[in-house]
Amino acid sequence: MAERLFKAKIFLKNGIVQEVVVTASNMFNAKELIKMQYGNPRFFSDPQEVRR
How far apart are CA 24 and CA 28, in angstroms? Predict the structure, then answer.
């Protein structure tokens, strides 16, 4: 399965909106990776695939 690049915006604990980028095989996995890395953050925008 091909790995694809996804970006999303999350709220950090200090209230700042930060764009994050992850590599995953699908949108669900991208969201799960972001949740694991950032401690289940509040999403400003869900992951969307980045076209290269």
Answer: 9
CA neighbours closer than 13 Å in the CB half-sphere of residue 43: 13
CA dist., res. 43 & res. 3, Å (int): 22
| pLDDT tens digits along 1-50 | 789 999 999 999 999 999 999 999 999 999 999 999 999 899 999 999 99
* N-terminal to C-terminal alpha carbon distance within the chain: 17
Q: What pTM, to 2 d.p., does this model score?
A: 0.87
Residue in the block written with tokens 């209230």 = 15
